[in-house]
Predict the 3D structure of the following.
Amino acid sequence: MGQCQCECRPGTPANDLSLLDPILEKYKDVPGSLITVLQQTQGIYGYLPKDAIAAIAQALDLKIAKIMGVISFYAQFRLAPNGKYLLMMCQGTACHVNGSEKVLEALTDELGIKPGETTEDGLFTLESVACLGCCSIGPEMMIQTSGESKVYGHLTTKSVRDIIRQIRRDHGGALK
Amino acid sequence: MRVTVGMGSCGIGAGALRAWDALEASFSRLGLDQKVERVGCNGMCFDEPIVEVISDSGHFYYGNVDEKIAERIASEHVKDGNPVEEYLISASDMDFLRRQTRVALCNCGSIDPEKIDEYIGSDGYAALRKCLTEMTPEQVIGEIKASGLRGRGGAGFPTWRKWDAARSSPGKTKYIICNADEGDPGAFMDRSLLEGDPNAVIEGMAIAGYAIGSGHGIFYVRAEYPLAIKRLETAIEQARLRGFIGSNILGTGFDFDLSIKAGAGAFVCGEETALIASLEGERGMPRLKPPFPAEKGYWQEPTNINNVETYGNISWIIRNGGAAFAAMGTEASKGTKVFALAGKVKKSGLVEVPMGMTIRQIIYDIGGGIKGDRDIKGVQMGGPSGGCIPKHLLDTPVDYESISKAGAIMGSGGMIVMDEDTCMVDMARFFLDFTQKESCGKCVHCRIGTKRMLEILNRIVAGEGREGDMELLEDLGRGIIAGSLCGLGQSAPNPALSTLKQFPEEYRAHIYDKKCPAHKCRPLLTYMIDENKCVGCLACVKKCPVNAITGEVRKPQHIDPEICVRCGSCEAACRFDAVLVD
């Protein structure tokens, strides 16, 4: 494999674009399937690499600018790789009323990153999301890793730190 | 005997899988041939994980089940037949369920959402059969008209009228869309219904398809609801295998198939024209109405869009008759409505009650009152598009008109309870922060006006409020309502306008006295030490991150307000209630 052409993370191998072929083949003649194609592409690579976007543009006969317009409109799409664990900290109304802001503060402090950022070791990406819909167990957070998602409820400033430290321990990382 | 575990996202988040595993392990250890069954969430989210044991002597509910309790349920109740009294959900907690009337949620918590046979076993698909074999499309629409059902997603438009318009619009292909883009942060009835009884929604959509003459249905589901999407996929596949959807349904020649599209995270896509744009693969930006989707919707064809809960009511109405549904509720708002009760309420969860019950009854009789028996300040209804109903209007009945009159909206049924510790200026700021981020940017007033309102509110909670800010907020709010195309912009100022109207004294306290009465806005707080109570133990001194507390041992301490960062550590550390917050 050659070197990655995009600037997301220098040194990572180039993306295997052949993985896209079945998706492009399936949807290239289905009108209105751009969002589905982008979602499935993100499902493969964990984000939307520039070369994949170019391939989609060609297959669906769309301008890259048009695709970027759609990507930037929706919160779900990412242009840079995620950490291994995606932490989605709910900031919905019920969680807010029950103190989710303080929990998010503890989380940013523990991780040393702000929402939207990824830790240097590539282990965690932190996102603050509007609502996960489990309002009665708030403050809550969803952690996604390798396609699995798990909801953690009744969070406190202490329990989120414990969750993060446990994951770090599982990966042999040093405690902060 | 049946043993079930509530396995909604909320139950799983609370530890239902651990309870499940412990039950199975105990059964096998005890040599019992007893299965554990999966059911949806019964709405008693406050007691999750919930295990129900159903035997000849009745239904027994256990709440907050951990591994230990699961083992005891297995050995004492399932094996020996003696309910474990100390862990049964108390009678007063069971009132939460008993005081409800369940139509849309009638199967949630009692059937396995991943087994279509259980849905069929509780009269599932009987309504579709009745429509296809005994009723004309006009009669179906007539039955929905008789029920008085109005849209459960927000505006409360009569459902039959939407169906009728889509039916009479000329078009070669018509579409049925289910709006499952539950965007109100704090509402979760659609998630719970899709996770707990997906077939009911599918059946409702198929009936709508028959009524308007459509063969294509599409679910538009939030991407944040992976479990709902998974259960829908399972249900659609099973329904197709059984011939309830697909071609030549039940041998009647009616064709109707369903697909799912996952949303990509945009609140504005709850607006129907934006939702259609998103389904077509575009940026989810609303367009001017008319033409309404019933005339020109998905791919410019007649399209009927209803919310999850609306479709969830359809099969019940067909089975029991429109008149039975209309017998519940009020003159203008018929039937039942599901509310997502959350916030500072003791028992939070899903509540389905006849329209016309008062907000007070829902919060106190069903929800058990306020956490810690504190004083209620108000209830936010309708989420970021709604408003706050203050304490003195708690006897407002829940119906579309009364709630609007009280200054909020029914919306999708989110009910966030706020107590005296909730700062209303902060809540307005919270909602504006949300709508400002979610504005699609098409209309100038919405795009820039919400940003300006947010800046003012941010200033006020930071203690930099100025004379004239309240008037400016009102003026901007009115401008945004007048100058925005869609429901998002037209309602974005509501939380600010409603709190300005109901709680002006809180705004004044922030702006003029530089105080936050709820002690929530940190820059406005002053921490002091009560010299009469302080014993000089230095517990607070050790906790203070900025060394703002000084004094001698065994003598009252002093906090330097210039150094203090208002983190509250001293208050948490003090065992003598000597730290005062103003």
Q: What stands out?
A: The two ends of chain B are 58 Å apart (CA to CA). The domain at 336-419 of chain B is CATH 3.10.20.600 (Ubiquitin-like (UB roll)).
